[in-house]
Amino acid sequence: MTKRAADSQLAERARRQHGLISRAQALASGLNDQNLVDRLCAGHLLLVAPGVYRYQGVAGSWHGDVMAACLFAGPAAVASHGTAAVLHRLDGFAPGRVELTIPRRARHHLNDVRVHRPRLGVSAAERIVIDGIPTTTIERTLIDVARVRGLRRGEVVLDGAQRDGTAHVDAVAGLADRIRGRGRTRIGKYSDLVHARLGSSQPTTALERRFLALIEDSTLPRPECQVRMLLSNGRAVVADFVFHTSMVVVEVDGRVGHAGDLDRQRDAERDSLLQLSGFCVLRFTYRDVDDRPSWVVATVQRAIRGVA
Known about the structure:
- By secondary structure, the chain is α+β, with helices and mostly antiparallel strands.
- The chain has helices spanning 3-15, 23-29, 33-41, 62-73, 81-87, 138-149, 151-164, 169-181, 188-197, 206-216, 261-276, 286-291, 293-304, and strands at residues 20-22, 45-49, 52-55, 78-79, 98-101, 113-116, 127-130, 133-136, 224-230, 236-243, 248-253, 280-285.
- The protein is built from 13 helices and twelve strands.
- The strands form four sheets. Strands 9-10-11-12 form a four-stranded mixed sheet, with helices on both faces.
- Helix 6 (138-149) runs antiparallel to helix 7 and helix 8 runs antiparallel to helix 9.
- The longest helix is centred in the last third of the chain and has 16 residues, at 261-276.
- The N and C termini lie far apart (81 Å).
């Protein structure tokens, strides 16, 4: 291959890698180290990490930083944990310090990069490519977040992924079982939590998740979420939460500002029909859930006991 053809091939590859190439990729295309030095001296390439180069004119970015870290760490490296959570657009994660998973015996070190070296690593089936970046799958990412950030954070991102349709709980449960079976993985509680979700619906908004977290942190039973109900007038509605054994329905109102007259009328009609069907209906606002969590839990508790 001619040098011109090699340069063309590398430029095309760089376009898929946020303007970056590695020394290994350059050598594989037919260039040698002196060719790279020449291009550095001419200003065509910039050294951004040992053995990693960015084409002149390509602006730096967080995605570029992630790509550079992966190229530096080698083909077995994969963006993971919080970084993978950003790439998968999971709730509550924003671009920040880059996190990678690399083989346990690898000894790569790069400033400002958090490196994970799990005992058994990431299998080929647990890797995908997002925006050109090798990344852990959504299922592996959810599990890694729970292991490192804690069970509660893992539950929140699982709820969000189910809501967005980016993860299916049965697939997460299957991977959790496989990882759990490898031993010493600190995944037992999360695996149990995921299995408890099989066949159950989940909250769809941040406010609903906050309310559910209040209930799960209390001694109250876990309600069923997003329950489709048929009212006596034939209208089908979806209730946010239902405590079936106590005949209690809870709605959390996430509308900002004052609801219009038509909204209030519909809510009142809906509540009346549910009450005629024997349900106790409770409504909580953002302010209730955020500013008066103890009162919210106590009110639900009284309703469940039949003294609301």
